[in-house]
Amino acid sequence: MLRIQTALPERYTNATPDELAEWTARAKAALGDRLLILGHHYQRDEIMRFADARGDSLALSRLAADRHDSRFIVFCGVHFMAEAADILTSQDQQVILPDLNAGCSMADMADLDAVEEAWDELAAVVDIERVIPVTYINSAASLKAFVGSHGGAVCTSSNARAVLTWALNPQNPSERRGDKVLFFPDQHLGRNTGYQLGWTGDDMRVWDPRLPLGGLDDREVKDAPLLLWRGHCSVHQRFQPSHVESFRAEHPGAMVVVHPECSHEVVALADSAGSTDFIIRTVDEAPPGTVIGVGTEIHLVKRLDDEHPDKSVLSLDPLVCPCSTMSRIDSAHLCWILEGLARGDVYNQITVDPDTAKWARVALDRMLAIT
Ligand code: 13P
Ligand code: SF4
Fold first, then answer.
1. Are residues 206 and 226 in the same domain?
2. Are residues 147 and 212 in the same domain?
3. Which domain holds residue 216?
4. Hey, which of 38, 54, 57 would you mutate to test ligand 1's pocket, going by the most ligand atoms within 8 Å of its Cβ?
5. Which residue among 65, 80, 347, 350 has the highest number of C-beta atoms inside a 10 angstrom radius?
6. Exposed, middle or buried, 8 (CB in 10 Å: 0-12/13-18/19+)?
7. Same domain, 131 and 210
8. Any atom of ligand 1 within 6 Å of the Cβ of 276
9. How far is CA 9 from the centre of its chain?
10. Closest-lying ligand to the alpha carbon of 186?
């Protein structure tokens, strides 16, 4: 989705990194407890040094929901995260995204029109009351609201398993809420979680929103407990099984950990898969001397390597690119935002309209209650 970020004043574009750091620190100190800076793990180091708290999507949602005392929440992450924070905070808190162009290409792969169309098509084939919509947190607030108003829940990479168990409970059918989940927008997280819960490839069908009935026939739609929206993360989809194989050949005995937005073929070859917080814990807990190949965004991989001089933390793909939208948040934008706040000027506030926020909150609260 296109959002227009105004050009920064020359004060910021012409400043040196040291000047930006000094001005940011001064503005942050002036704002004191009124300010909370949240940093997702994929942010640049120049941003993370100013973050009051770091986390994965679940941890940052919880922090936003729990910090009632901060007037301004500057969210160093991407747009859907700032929207979730706005939904979970109170009316007198303002959530700010330092660069409005910090979106998520995966979140843009599902929109409300396409999901409503898919829902109508599904209703013509199955009992729609028995279909539970589940959206990955990497989605627009309008989709979270759709899910909330149709009996579903949000999930993150930390709790997708718990949310799918809540919806379909494959181990205990008497406790299931429905017969089928429409999972969007990331097919890979859905598939990797489905395999973890014991479903097979035939139980999971890809729903292609560009094709009639998602490109499936009536029987496939009726039989599959999991319908996976055809969406992906372009950063994580770059990782290939050949990367894991070459890495293991080059580093015998190495450990491999990947994010569940990677394809199932990659996850199957890894030692473990999980959210960014999980990846950090895995590296923290590895014995000294371990070589660890990581399949996730490069800023996090490099930071882990820097913070663990006794281990070797490497990207599985030597050419891996950063998440270009996360990288939009840089020290110039953060400084501009904080100096504005210190003067009383609020730029780039993210607001979700009250009706959307009401239903999106239902879906987010269900997720927080499940996990
Ligand atoms: P985490 O919730 O694991 O931090 O993932 C967010 C994300 O966008 C991964 O690409
Ligand atoms: Fe979106 Fe992928 Fe970037 Fe995560 S890494 S914010 S899923 S584009």
1. yes
2. yes
3. 107-233
4. 57
5. 80
6. middle
7. yes
8. yes
9. 31
10. 2
Cβ of 330 less than 6 Å from ligand 1: no
Among residues 287, 315, 343, the one where a domain terminates is 315
Residue-level pLDDT at 175? 84
- Rounded to 5°, the CA angle 192-193-197 comes to 120
| CATH number of the domain where residue 157 is located | 3.40.50.10800
| Closest residue to atom 8 of ligand 1, CA basis | 138
Give the model's pLDDT for residue 1: 64
Counting from 1 in the atom list of ligand 2, the atom nearest the Cα of 107 is 1
Q: Are 258 and 217 in contact (CB under 8 A)?
A: no
Tens-place pLDDT, residues 322-349: 999 999 999 999 999 999 999 999 999 9
Residue whose entry in the numeric block shows the structure tokens 């927080």: 368
- 33 and 18 inside one domain: yes
Atom 6 in ligand 2: residue holding the nearest Cα? 104
Residue 47: pLDDT over 80: yes
Q: Which atom of ligand 2 is nearest to the CA of 296?
A: 5
Residue 364 counted as domain residue? no
Count the domains in the chain: 3
d(C-alpha 83, C-alpha 91), whole Å: 13
Instruction: Yes or no: say if 53 and 31 are a contact pair by the CB < 8 Å rule.
Output: no
Q: Which residue's structure tokens are 């969406």?
A: 231
* Helices 354-370 and 141-149: angle between axes, nearest 10 degrees: 70
Question: pTM of the predicted model, to two decimals?
Answer: 0.96
- Examine the fold and report which residue of 291, 315, 339 is the final residue of a domain before the chain moves on: 315
Q: What confidence tens digit (pLDDT) does each residue in 178-187 have?
A: 999 999 999 9
Question: Is 228 in a helix, a strand, or coil?
Answer: strand
Q: Which residue carries 């504005």 as its tokens?
A: 340
Hey, which of 41, 79, 99, 104 would you mutate to test ligand 2's pocket, going by the most ligand atoms within 8 Å of its Cβ? 104
Ligand 2 neighbours (beta carbon < 6 A): 78, 104-106, 138, 233, 235, 261, 297, 323, 325-326
Return mean pLDDT, the chain.
Answer: 96
Please give the number of the atom of ligand 1 that sits closest to the Cα of 78: 8
Do 211 and 114 share a structural domain? yes
Binding site membership of 56 for ligand 1 (Cβ less than 6 Å): yes
Residue ID of nearest Cα to ligand 1 atom 2: 57
Any domain includes 360:
no
